From TrEMBL:
Keywords: ATP-binding, Chaperone, Cytoplasm, Nucleotide-binding, Stress response. Belongs to the heat shock protein 90 family. It comes from Pseudonocardia sediminis. One of its GO terms (molecular function) is ATP hydrolysis activity. This is Chaperone protein HtpG.
Amino acid sequence: MSTATETIEFQAESRQLLQLMIHSIYSNKDIFLRELISNASDALDKLRLESLQDKDLDVDTSDLHLELVIDKENRTLTVRDNGIGMSRDEVVDLIGTIAKSGTAELLAKLKETDPAASQELIGQFGVGFYSSFMVADTVTLVTRKAGESAGVRWESAGEGSYTIEPVDDAPQGTAVTLALKAEDAEDSLHDYANPATVRRIVKKYSDFITWPIRMTPEKAAATEEGEEPAEPQPETVNSMKALWARAQKDVTPEEYNEFYRHVSHDWQEPLETIRLAAEGTFEYQALLFLPQVAPMDLYMRDSRRGVQLYVRRVFIMDDCEALVPEYLRFVKGVVDAADLSLNVSREILQQDRQISAIRRRLVKKVLSTVRTMMTEEPEKYTTFWDQFGRAVKEGLISDHDNLDAILEISSFASTHDAEKPTTLAQYVERMKDGQEHIYYMTGDSRSSIESSPHMEALRDRGYEVLLLTDPIDEVWVDQVPGFDDKELRSIAKGQVDLETEEQKEKAGEQREEFAGLLDWMGTTLADDVKEVRLSSRLTTSAACLVNDENDMSPTLEKMYRAMGQEMPTVKRILELNPSHPLVAGLKSKQSETPDDAGLGETAELLYGMALLAEGGELSDPSRFVSLLAGRLERTL
């Protein structure tokens, strides 16, 4: 450890973020105390767990607590705990640097959002400690890590640098002392050297903290006889009742909302609160929340997921991934199990039979809650699906045990309504007489699908088509066989059977009539297509490209290539509309002058037009343009 006082500059981005937070982010400055108490509570949780796991750790855990100390004369407020503490390296890493990653992106986002959104971002990046600078001119932190002999002192005015030095006589744990600014009612800056103000904030924001938060009352004045009263003793100012362990009727919505903010670092109220308890062979209690807004990192590879795990109210770990599948990674909350070992790791939890059983129950409860929301609170469900539907659909690939339940709560855009999505159950209710399949098409956007040639025959017949535009849709549709005994059928793959018996008979005659053209075009375009055939799905376009039933779609192929995976090129099927003048004319010309060199160019152009119509990319755009220009020139 260094023996001298060092002055260290904040990172440039961290300095900017500090100033944004101090001057423009938090509208409610009381929140600083909640953040400091939450950090202290986490430190106590970690020490308790460390002492259980490391029997050689020489620490006293008999009276773990937080203490709030107010010095009215010097206008300071200290938040002290006797928890795990920090080493010098941890102080520099965790306190000296605001954000471990993504600071620049956060800054850019903050500059373009309103204050409410900014508050949400701050919570997500875990920088609540720095909210102290809203109410303090100087922040001093003294800490000693459990098991170490020396401590460290950190101090900053929040203006670009901080000092750090060793401290020999620091008590175990962490003490954060704020040199408070003067009260400023216009700036919503309360008098935080007033014990009544501090008690009010603790009761409002931190009453659920499971560790005692103590304050020593002010000493009473001497009596008229001049007798000095006894020194006041510290009082516990929070209830310490674990919210999930209290009867539901004894918990107010405000307490649930505040607990949600504590576990999620979200500034909004939860969309839905879920209570769950089990007794019998193994016991546990769960308090889960569905957020209103998806976190920024929901689709990032290293996003945090999982809920907090406690064992008999002893904190075990944050973000317990074994309790929540990845597609429900947005669920926040707490699970308190009665029968697990306190000395567990993430690897052990993944194999634990009880954890697996709890996980199954949690998943079923979340899905059933969303289903209830769908039927009883459709507006709330719409908010949920808009924010998390894309993530939930990942479960259609990974969670086969709950496939039907996920399909039931899923909504999709469709041709039935331009604004309102539909469930599969609603789709089946609207199916036309004789319709056997649920038709869908994947694509980049609604507009590109609706304008696709593949839609023509279904649109003419009034069939509803699901419009699937999320990247995940490209994957799950190939793994889900159907819904309610109705097969899911892509209108861009295989044959689409929409014809009556009379139409099928006519189509057979046309295939014989066009056999020569089809064979010739199949040979001419052999490098690009695997087959040329007549289409039953086209009414106005001359041609379209379709995949074989089990072939990978072009969009999925493109996605894999974007991820760096080399994929073999899949040849597709070119379908021709026999009633289109261009196709009919090409048939006549090919039968009359089969050796005409221009026929091959026409076939090339027809293939290129079909590829462009679906938003595909030409392998040789310059050749296509040259052929097209030559044809246009000869028409003048």
